[in-house]
Amino acid sequence: MGATGLSLHIGLNTVDPDRYDGWNGHLVACENDARDLSVLASDAGYSGTVLLTEEATVDGVTAALRAAAARLRDGDAFLLTYSGHGGQVPDETEGGDEPDALDETLVLYDRQFLDDELNRELARFAEGVRVLVLLDCCHSGTGIEVRDLLTPHALREQFGTEDREQIETVSRLMPVARQGAIYQRDRDFFQELQRELRADARRADALLISACQDNQLAADGRVNGLFTGTLLRVWDKGAFSGGHRAFHRAIVSRMPATQSPNLHLSGHPAPSFLAQRPFTV
């Protein structure tokens, strides 16, 4: 009997303004990213679930991840893709695991989903499940404070402007001032959640390819995000034949220097998985 492949594709063009102090986080291409990557996955033999905007709540995403973890076994494959805003919240708890004292977040419809929450869900997968994660959002590198590293020159090179408001309309960065205000509002909730996650800190074995480095922002687009659109062109409807590192290098070679996708290994994914052709079931 062959391996099973399941995939989950998340795309948010807006968030709930009632949960984000009036901000709706409007983006253009994230739902398209999710749909297009679900087609790619289906063509590769995955059975997929797509969660768009209002469906992409913390409960909805968590339930979908747990359903996949309950089904998959050693040798099976899981693909997770996310397109939307990225954010950060301070990690002020004792013994925090982030060198920059920040937890990166996926900005889901009803609240921010911590990177450690995502790790906890991916760690539920059985040993030997091949987990690939594609994140097309800001703050998706390895977790260094973006605000301190983005110089005016870097912003001008990437977006043609240094104006933060203009940049926030064409990138997948949750506005920095909004991040701070919402964290202060929900500080007690996040601190309790971070303490809970710290007590259950087993690292997931997963391979991550993300849209940008720590000192860069991920650009939105008219049809797809810059990263997702480039990935789709490199994949070329399955014509690509190399392994994950070669796939990453090919994507990077087609991206501008101002947005260079990152490849990151969490835990200890098998070397044979890393060498395997992407999206293999």
From TrEMBL:
<dbReference type="GO" id="GO:0005737">
    <property type="term" value="C:cytoplasm"/>
</dbReference>
<protein>
    <submittedName>
        <fullName>Caspase domain protein</fullName>
    </submittedName>
</protein>
<dbReference type="Pfam" id="PF00656">
    <property type="entry name" value="Peptidase_C14"/>
</dbReference>
<dbReference type="GO" id="GO:0006508">
    <property type="term" value="P:proteolysis"/>
</dbReference>
<feature type="domain" description="Peptidase C14 caspase">
    <location>
        <begin position="19"/>
        <end position="256"/>
    </location>
</feature>
<dbReference type="InterPro" id="IPR011600">
    <property type="entry name" value="Pept_C14_caspase"/>
</dbReference>
<dbReference type="InterPro" id="IPR029030">
    <property type="entry name" value="Caspase-like_dom_sf"/>
</dbReference>
<dbReference type="InterPro" id="IPR050452">
    <property type="entry name" value="Metacaspase"/>
</dbReference>
<dbReference type="GO" id="GO:0004197">
    <property type="term" value="F:cysteine-type endopeptidase activity"/>
</dbReference>
